[in-house]
Specification:
Number of domains: 2
Strand content: 5-15%
Structural class: alpha+beta
Distance between the termini: 38 Å
Shape: elongated
């Protein structure tokens, strides 16, 4: 497997190891080998490799896995843009309020 890591620390993937029944379906359907089975339970071993496709959650027989499909990377990119634009806006015009900077940034993203 290639190391296809996405944005660090933005993945919404959650696994309740106590609920997990150890069926291994998440390991079978995960395209990026995010899970491993040990001690009769699944464990997340490569969290940042998750692309949030949702296959693991859809195939979990006991609903031990939760993931907001597609949210992680998009949220990380948007938050990064907002942080960058906020810093530039503050440097360029220190008299603007935080609220107006945020409104300007949201507006510019969708233009």
């Amino acid at each position: 497997m290639k190391d296809l890591m996405y944005l660090p620390d933005v993945v919404t993937l959650e696994l309740c190891e106590t609920t997990c029944n150890g069926c291994g379906m998440c390991i079978k359907v995960c395209p990026h080998e995010v899970f491993e089975l040990s001690g009769g339970k699944a464990h997340i071993i490569r969290r940042d490799y998750c692309m949030e496709c949702g296959a693991c959650a859809l195939n979990c027989q006991v609903q031990a896995i939760k993931v907001n499909s597609g949210v992680g990377c998009a949220a990380g990119i948007i938050n990064g843009i907002l942080r960058t634009r906020n810093l530039h806006a503050v440097v360029l015009n220190q008299k603007q309020t935080v609220a107006s900077i945020k409104l300007t940034n949201y507006h510019n993203i969708f233009l």
